[in-house]
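Annotated sample (chain length 315).
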Amino acid sequence: MKITVLDRNTITNGDISLAELETLGEVSFYDLLSGEEIVKVAKDADAILCNKANIDSFVVNNCLNLKYVGLFATGYNNIDLEACSVRNIVVANAPGYSTNSVAQNVFSFILELSGKLSQYNASVHDGDWIKSKQFSYFPFPIQEIYGKTLGIYGFGTIGKAVAKIADAFGMKVIISTRTKPKDSPYLVVDKEQLFAESDFLTLHCPLTPETRELVNKDTLSLMKPTAYLINTSRGGVINESELAAALNGGKIAGAGLDVLTLEPMKEGNPLLTAKNCLITPHIAWASFEARKRLITLVADNFRAFISGKSKNVVN
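Output written by the structure step:
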């Protein structure tokens, strides 16, 4: 089979081997391409493997041999599932590979927002400790997370992993989720209660019509002024201008964001200058270990498709 691999530079900078993908068939590798460029390189392909490439109806309807789209990602909002289904093209995602990496990133944000380590490190390197007359100084308020309430919106694999870490820190966990879990050890609340009671609120939901701009001026108005928002899911679940206004107006204490509505970040994004807003460039998933697992998972998905036993199909 002819396989076109797109977005190669989003999954490896040379540190991860793609040799396993080369065993799947006649494979061609490309970096980021436009829609017209994708059609040019994949017009004869039986399969496309991609990360964030936009596989829209134009691509689908102009790649006439296409039978399979495999994602180097859990989310699939960049794929026109309807167009694929009309042509009986199987679309498979990659769930679970980055669970530990993303959960770790959530607590990197939580610990930085509560402990201000980067601010103190910068202060020391600026010479403030050398100038200090006392052994300890604390201009940046820090707090314990023990006993604080962690609200988790979306309780899939990553949400559960985050809750487990929160347990170890002695946090109180509450959750809000579309499907109420059986025998949950945590209090299940509605969206409004989650926003109102959380000291830290972390989002772990897909981007759907129901979750788009879930975080907006109305839901933000429910939050404590001392609360922090964490988002490692999809940028579109937040109205960015309204979050920036809430941060600048002291409506909430801070935010940690690994994802934005438009990526890469566009000039003029109001969050770039918002108060106490930590932003990382969509790297929560991208630990070395997670990316190695990802290559194997994507290869396994394709082998399952070839064998007639497709798995992780999303359409």
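Annotation: The first strand starts at residue 2 and ends at 5.
Annotation: The domain at 2-97+288-306 is CATH 3.40.50.720 (Rossmann fold).
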